[in-house]
Amino acid sequence: MPLPPAPTKRAAMLPPEALDAPARSSHKAARKTEAPAAETLLERPQAQDDFDPRAGGGDVPAGSYDAEVETYLDEPQPARRMRKDVTVPAAQPKKKKSSGTAKMFVLDTNVLMHDPMSLFRFDEHDIFLPMVVLEELDGHKKGTTEVARNARQASRSLDAMASPPTADIASGLKLDSTGHKEAGGCLFFQTMPLSPSGLPMGLPPGKADNQILSVVQALQEKHAPRQVVLVSKDINMRVKARALGLNTEDYRNDKTLDDLDLMYSGSLALPHDFWSTHGNVESWQSGSHTFYRVSGPVVPGLFINQFVYFEAPGEPSLYARVTEIRGKTAVLKTLKDFGHLKNAVWGVTTRNREQNFAMNLLMDPEVDFVTLSGTAGTGKTLMALAAGLTQVLDERRYTEIIMTRATVSVGEDIGFLPGTEEEKMGPWMGALDDNLEVLGKTDNGAGEWGRAATNELIRSRIKIKSMNFMRGRTFLNKYVIIDEAQNLTPKQMKTLITRAGPGTKIICMGNLAQIDTPYLTEGSSGLTFAVDKFKGWPHSGHITLARGERSRLADFASDVL
């Protein structure tokens, strides 16, 4: 059927009976009916093709509301059925997601000492602090430990909320009064004795944990049916609470990830149909590297500096790094093969795919922050030292290597260590000595005297520092290695990373399966925190090393023990 001619009248010139007709009808509906006369078509608006109110003129201004079909005339068709109002409301700030009736959370002392900002992490819910919690908080505020600092910070937050003259402690203190707008509830202190009716007689009343449990049970009886929940990091405390029929939870807000399997690995295996689904690929050569510009379904899930690889029998392999992401298009850059002997770094060649990915990050001057995770024997320390020595002694990119680690004992402490700072750190740096011994044997043509001179030169360029004295320091053009980073808290990790000055590169290494710090888990470790926060930053990279290369005994022990 031929299309009707264009209308010659504007909307304002249409007769009144034409305005009573439906404002829109699809072409499909028009085809099902009989063809109207030409003069009728000239007087009745048909579809968007026939009349566009955005062209101006007439009585239907752009953005007006069409009551017949409940649409806005200046919007695309899928969005039109969504609007009901005549006026467009102004943008409103996002509201907190409400989970029904606000709960009351009773915080244990160890929660405040673990995270002093936990007071403001419970959204719209209320917080209750028993008097014994304040007493325990006061008893732990002295000292220079992390626990003492957190206790003092929590006390300062409580003082800031309770100090204004208008503060009414009996009716609750607004948690957002100090600027923490994410907290919408109130803070309540215990202002009178609370004694439950059914606390078991076997619990000694003088113990602090039992006093907190009695307060929780009394609150549950007083505020029923409102839910009262005890939040504690103490496992035994939670077990006793459940035995008494009380609601209890662990404090999980400090966890970056709930499941370690969700942790960013730094590499991605491309699907077997990658080249067929991403057929429109642009490639070019620059130096020794080949670049690919791809667009397709895999691009939205990529991050900057993420490694991708394609391995399929009978097809050429691809090992590349994402260097640019713009909308639905990504640029991949092929890697340098450090597994080949001609590309050896201080005599060390990579033995598997993930090690080659890691060495590309370690040797890239544009990458300022590198995180390496993996089981024992995957080569984290050896590769970091080899790359550091090459860039300090051969390429003169950095002035020296600074190495530190978290001094957390696996077993009983052996007591005070004599000597200077480096001598005290010596027993903790056994991994450094072992790897330097391996790196010192790579130069076979130098002879015994040459190797001795090289070892002396290496020792002069490696400084061992304690984490206890890092506050306030600034490292300029240094190559900083943080070993055993899985034992660091997120706050300690922030303290170390912010020491970096211009030209400094920081490498954090650790095995998340070997955490020795109390109350620290894989999800709340500083290493997990850094990996999650830095992914996608153009000057950082992460690789999870999958295969051990230490020995067959170490590999088997990592799998079965």
TrEMBL record:
Keywords: ATP-binding, Nucleotide-binding. It holds the Pfam family PhoH. Residues 103-239 form the PIN domain. SUPFAM superfamilies: P-loop containing nucleoside triphosphate hydrolases, PIN domain-like. The keyword Amino-acid biosynthesis does not apply. Gene3D superfamilies: 5'-nuclease (3.40.50.1010), P-loop containing nucleotide triphosphate hydrolases (3.40.50.300). CDD domains: PIN_VapC_PhoHL-ATPase. InterPro entries: P-loop_NTPase (IPR027417), PhoH (IPR003714), PhoH2-like (IPR051451), PIN-like_dom_sf (IPR029060), PIN_dom (IPR002716). Residues 1-99 are annotated as: Disordered. It comes from the Bacteria. In the N-terminal section; belongs to the PINc/VapC protein family. Belongs to the PhoH family. This is PhoH family protein.
